[in-house]
Amino acid sequence: MNRIALICSLLIGMILFSSCPGSVCPPDKKTGAITLSAETRSKIPYQGTERLTFSSQKGQQMNLQSSNGQEDTMDRLCYQTICTEPKFDGKSTCEYYEGEASRFIFTDSNNSFLLDLLFHLEVYKSGAPNFYEAMQLSISSEFNSANGRRILGQRFTGDFQEQEINLQNKLEYRTSVTLNGKSFSDVYYFESTNSSIYYTDNQGLIGFKFNQDTWVLN
Predict the structure, then answer these.
(1) 44/158 Cα distance (integer angstroms)
(2) What secondary structure letter does DSSP report for 8?
(3) Rounded (5°) CA angle 45-46-47
(4) CA distance 66 to 109
(5) How far apart (Å, rounded) are the C-alpha atoms in residues 73 and 132?
(6) For range 46-75, the mean pLDDT
(7) Cα–Cα distance for residue pair 29/147, rounded to 1 Å
(8) What is the pLDDT at residue 85?
(9) How far is Cα 119 from Cα 100, in angstroms, rounded to an integer?
(10) Dihedral angle at the C-alpha atoms of 67, 69, 73, 77, nearest 10 degrees?
(11) What is the overall mean pLDDT for the chain?
């Protein structure tokens, strides 16, 4: 090893060990807490006690209910790494906020169909406690599934570029949608070849398509 390479290796080692004294990271550090905004809470369509009934174009019917109702939690939102232990599979620790999340899970009587709706906060960019609010909608059955995500708003002052967020299966907006002859206004949707989901802020999941079957909220 030449002299320059040796010096570089020593410097890297000094940096790693200085950031993690004794080669062991300190514990995660909580620096604050943030709850869902009133605006986002106003968009939550369920209370968790509802019975949701969907009908298909073939006349089939499916009832969904939630066994746990509304589930509110405080999740850990790591925005800044404190250190990483300089060893294989070394632990990393972070500075974090506790962020509120609200979840609803509905199933049919056989637990063969699941509807999962989540409202939560996410870190905008690492390095600063800047967060945005989002919702995630997922449905699944034995052979099919569909999901969509939507950004609800930023929770910090400053520039917010939604296009910088890698949002998978983004829910798009339409002023109206007709499903099995029933019309709905202000609809958020995600459509693919074999599955689609449709949602409104007032009613929640209003319909979905799995292969050739279209199911609509009664």
Answers:
(1) 26
(2) H
(3) 140
(4) 10
(5) 17
(6) 97
(7) 33
(8) 85
(9) 9
(10) 90
(11) 91
